[in-house]
Amino acid sequence: MSDGAEIDGAGGRSPDDLPWVDEHASEIDAPASVVWPALLRTVERMTAGGAAPHYARAVGCADTESGGPRPLEVGSTVPGFHVAELAPERSLALAGSHRFSNYALVFRLEPLGGRRTRLLAETRAEFPRFAGRAYRAAVIGTRMHVLVVRRVIRGVAHRAERAPR
């Protein structure tokens, strides 16, 4: 993702330097030019409301509030994440850190021709020390993370496929 704008990722590292955790993908019946704004809106919505900032503060996230430019640009924040890398209509890397983990959620858009786009969501993270391993078991081991990422992907697809053309 080095051809777009970027800043340091989680824990001062590039998202690509963090260990790979998992990847989820979905084909969306919309071109990348429509999927991109739907992705940005979905990221904003997934962290809107009172619960996200409270959780971000509870676990000691570096980024606890929404801030910076809108629409999202490198340096913008949402609770739990900051935009570490961004290449419009191609990729968006959200990075963050808290007491238990340094992490990144990287979205990539792959045009499939015609009106279709594949959206990939790749998670990268490290879970240092015993507390980090326990947190990984609670979040990754229970599949809670999978459910959240799949919900985000469905939200993007829903917005993109219903957007005016």
List the helices and strands and how they pair.
Blueprint: E1 5-6, E2 20-28, H1 32-46, H2 51-58, E3 77-78, E4 81-87, E5 91-98, E6 101-113, E7 116-126, H3 129-139, H4 144-161
Q: What does it look like?
A:
There is one protein chain. This protein has 165 residues and is α+β, with helices and mostly antiparallel strands. The protein has a single domain (20-161), classed as 2-Layer Sandwich (Alpha-D-Glucose-1,6-Bisphosphate, Chain A, domain 4), CATH 3.30.530. 32% of the residues lie in helices and 32% in strands. The protein is built from four helices and seven strands; from the N terminus they run E-E-H-H-E-E-E-E-E-H-H. The protein has helices at residues 32-46, 51-58, 129-139, 144-161; strands at residues 5-6, 20-28, 77-78, 81-87, 91-98, 101-113, 116-126. Strands 1, 2, 3, 4, 5, 6 and 7 form a seven-stranded antiparallel sheet that branches. A hairpin with a 2-residue loop joins strand 6 and strand 7 (116-126). Helix 1 (32-46) packs across helix 4. The model is unreliable at 1-9 (pLDDT under 50).
CATH superfamily: START domain
Percent helix range: 25-40%
Q: Might you state the CATH topology name?
A: Alpha-D-Glucose-1,6-Bisphosphate, Chain A, domain 4
Shape: globular
Oligomer: single chain
- H and E order: EEHHEEEEEHH
Question: Mean of the pLDDT scores?
Answer: 92
Structural class: alpha+beta
Low-pLDDT stretches are: 1-9
